[in-house]
Structures are given as C-alpha cells and as structure tokens.
Specification:
The protein has 241 residues and is of the alpha/beta class. The protein is built from 9 helices and 9 strands.
Amino acid sequence: MRMIRTSKNMRGTVQCDNTTMHLLQANDFVADAIRQEVAKRNILLINIVSSAGSGKTTLLQETARRLKDKLTIKVLVGDLETERDADRIRQTGIDALQIVTGGICHLEAQMIWQAMQKLNLEGTDILIIENVGNLVCPASFDLGEDYRVTLIATTEGDDKPKKYPRMFLTSEMMLVSKSDLLPYLPFSVEAVVKDAKEVNPDIEHMTVSSTSGQGIDEWCNWLIEKAKEKKGIEQEELLAV
C-alpha cells in the first residue's frame, strides 16, 4: 500500500500509533560515544557552525597562528567537496583533516567518529569541528561537542537569529564576524544580540574580525579558559604543558 506523504510532521520525527520515534537516535548514540571519548582524553570539543562564507576558516587560521605554540589544536573540516579549507588550516602549522560529505549539507556524528580514528589525538587540547556552511541542518545534529559556536557575519544581515532560531537556541556562543565591515553595512550588533538573547537568553557573544584582529584575543582566551576547565587545571599550567 502506497503511503501518503505529508509535510506536516516535524523533521526528525515520525508518528506511529501516537508514539513519537526519534529518527536521530542513531546519531545521538554515536555523539554520546564521542563525548565519552573526548572526556576520557580531556579534549575540549568545539563545533563551529555558520552560513557559507561567514569566515569560519579564516577565523580558524588566525586562531591557529595565535595558539599553536601554546596549545595542541586539531581541526576537522566539513565541506561538500574539495580539501581547500583543510589545506588553508594546515598551512598555519596545525593538523587538519577534511571530511568531504559528497553533497550532504551537514556533518553527522558518525562522520566525526570515523575521522577521529584517523587523527592522533594524543596530547590534543582542543579539537575543533568546522561544520558545513548551513544554518539549518547542522542545528539538528549533536556531534558530541562541549560547545557549539555560531558565526554570523556582518555581510549576512542582522535578522538571522529569529529566522534560524534552532541554531542559536542550541549554541553557547555567537561570534559576530567581519566586524571591520560594520562602517559600510546596514548591520546592527545591538539588534542581532537582542534577537539572539530573545531566542536563547544564555548565549554568550563576541564581536570579532580576523582581518583587523578585533576580538580575536578575547576569543582565544575563551578557548583557553574552556580547555582549562575541561582539563581541570589552572590556565598557567595548561599553557606550560
């Protein structure tokens, strides 16, 4: 018997005799395994998400330049095709592995788990996931991260938190990127922060520019602080490791 398709069901669920079955259960199972693995190794796991072109890779390049001599950072980069972003990050002197999704618009926990098996994680302080550029699908997939960081570029417009609320609801940090362009664009940092806080009152925020350097030290210090908390040691000890 042919099933009648409907667009009324929420994405990620199916109704069966009044019982909602979570279709992301397999992903969540692997995400829990990732969370346990990085906890065992005291590795801080960061999932960076955004629209395409918001400056994730450039931010990671600048982050690597400033922290590579202080912390051991490794990066997993998700893209539909090519290794270009991973190549750019490797040029800064840190280890980066490209995950080519072949058309899938997000990373899933199984992809991260498999990629982690190809990295030497011994002694790693921070493992950063650069997700596929998309504010929709990645919001639904737990990757076992400690923190989800959403970039919103000044070139995108300041209305994104209300248009894509799930991404901001599930993020702990919002970075307003490309702040050096603020004088030339109709973008209000105050407005985007207000909307983000209305969606998620607990979300933190910073304004950064990888070009001018604005806010990058603050961002790097945030990473150091979170890595310190994960390892349960003082910041001075972490930087001395």
